[in-house]
Amino acid sequence: MSPVFSIVLCTYNAQPYLDECIQSLLQQTFHDFELIIVDDGSQDGTLAYLNALTDPRIRVIPLDTNQGLIFARTTGFDAAKGRYTAIMDADDIAHPRRLEEQLQAMDSGEADVCGSFHITLDTKSGRRRSRRSAFSDSDIRALLTIYCPLCNPSTSVATELLRQHRYDPSYPHAEDYGLWCDIASQGGRFKNITSPLLTYRLHPGQISIVKRETANNSFKAIQAKYVQAVTGNSLVPHSMPVKQRWEDAIVFMKMINQKIPGISFSANYELYAEFQYRSNGWLTPLLRIERLVIALWATLRGRYKKS
User: Fold this and answer.
1) Whole-angstrom Cα distance, residue 72 to residue 13?
2) Pfam families of this UniProt entry (predicted)?
3) What's the mean pLDDT when you consider all of the chain?
4) Which residues are bridge partners to 161 per DSSP?
5) pLDDT at position 206
């Protein structure tokens, strides 16, 4: 009998953090899952640790050489037997109720992709910080036009969607953002649970400068494609002079609230801020007023059109 959840965990030289990560998954309050661990050619003793695990819910898939995250994750997705697939990173820690709470949201029909708020843990200083984000379907789909409002390793996805939508290898280091935008543009529903169901570990060398530059290039390409799909317009939100804002940005705000009814005031406020310049000195109060007015207009217009 197939499990409800398939947890896909990819490892690569992750031994220092791996035991805490795996134990947090094995101690979930919801027990009907399989844990698929794809080891991406580790050389630090990770595979030996994995092979010593005895929990019958664990399946280890070793790759002979390092193939990269896209290949490793896709391998795990293809092996998944569960109705839902939970994504996990090897250096993070799951809250005990993560699967239980996400199952409730997804079984109720609220979402096809369900993430959560999270806590960041700085391994150098030990500092923990609570991180919030958009939580409604409308806000998440709208804010995908400017950034990713999902914490990727906190997400669970209907496995059927992962059969229909694949990672695009032409977008390295932004593959998750590309996947969410693809699903959103095809009518997928999203939700972030407002409890922190994941501790996201920050550590040196997590993202190199080279990868950050590559990720930024990938992000821009995905963003342009998604904005076009959602609004039917090629205008990607970016800083522009006030006269142009009152022309082009207003069109964008009008279109996105028409295409995605129910966007909140706070999300509209964030969207319009992308069209303004930063570090404006004495103009800052006036720009905040401008954002407030446009966000309120867009929100009321969206609600009126919805009704």
Assistant:
1) 14
2) Glycos_transf_2
3) 93
4) none
5) 58
